[in-house]
């Protein structure tokens, strides 16, 4: 299963856990996953499979019966500020800061780099400007977050995650509300992060985009049922099986697309 797995020590981020519960309900079982640097990994699977829960465990947002390691060191042993510089997070449908300008929302991502009560430095401002340009929201920088459209807002929140400049970036449904040109921009950003040595982990429902990643983690019923390269036919077979063969996968322009299987004519 783990043809591309790194060991926990050499991984950018890893989880080894027997069970994760939300309240009294067991949600994830026997998670053993080590994701290497310099790769983009997409987490996919049916609705309710546990993808977002797995990402939250990796981010340290949900306790688990086991251990998460970041850069080879248990998450719990990282000083909070250092950890926040190493691990950036873009959650699903994040709220908060509605009255802040887009610029100030992005600047929040620099907080881990700043000393207590210190004003933003020139480096902070240039990181924000770079991220707002990359995500195509520089022109919107003085608008309130609460006044932006869904896609504009998502791009500001992506900028906030990018300004952390962390070597590990976790994103839950980062393409929500993004139109195809902005999805394409997102792909360019991810490729740039990976080329610079980063580990990018994204939960995605868009299987054709997920298949453009380096590796795929397939989750079903709270378990990792496959982890492998997107180029591996075994990964395609596992993906089809995870979706009960209700998708088909086709080669296209050097990559793959996944389509819902058309119902048989009556
Ligand atoms: N707060 C909660 N209390 C109880 N069960 C929860 C809670 N949050 C999530 N769950 C359950 O945990 C399971 C996994 O949820 P999760 O959000 O991780 O799935 P997912 O794979 O990301 O789903 P989707 O594709 O629908 O976004 C689901 O059955 C969900 O109903």
Structure, explained:
InterPro entries: AAA+_ATPase, ABC_transporter-like_ATP-bd, ABC_transporter-like_CS, P-loop_NTPase. Keywords: ATP-binding, Cell membrane, Membrane, Nucleotide-binding, Translocase, Transport. This is Iron complex transport system ATP-binding protein. The chain is of the alpha/beta class. It is about 30% helix and about 30% strand. The protein has a domain at about 80-165: 3-Layer(aba) Sandwich (Rossmann fold). It contains eight helices and twelve strands. The chain has a six-stranded mixed beta sheet with strand order 6-7-8-3-9-10, sandwiched between helices. Helix 3 (about 100-110) runs parallel beside helix 5 (about 150-160) and helix 4 packs across helix 5 (about 150-160). It starts with 12 loop residues before the first strand and ends in a 6-residue tail after the last strand. Adenosine-5'-triphosphate (ATP) binds near residues 22, 25 and 50. The site of adenosine-5'-triphosphate (ATP) has 12 residues, from strand 2 and helix 1.
Helix and strand layout, with pairings?
Blueprint: E1 13-22, E2 25-35, E3 39-44, H1 51-58, E4 65-70, E5 73-74, H2 80-86, E6 87-90, H3 102-108, H4 122-134, H5 150-162, E7 168-172, H6 180-195, E8 199-203, H7 207-210, E9 215-220, E10 223-229, H8 233-242, E11 247-252, E12 255-260
Parallel strand pairs: 3-8, 3-9, 6-7, 7-8
Antiparallel strand pairs: 1-2, 1-4, 4-5, 9-10, 11-12
Bound molecules: adenosine-5'-triphosphate.
Adenosine-5'-triphosphate binds next to strand 2 and helix 1.
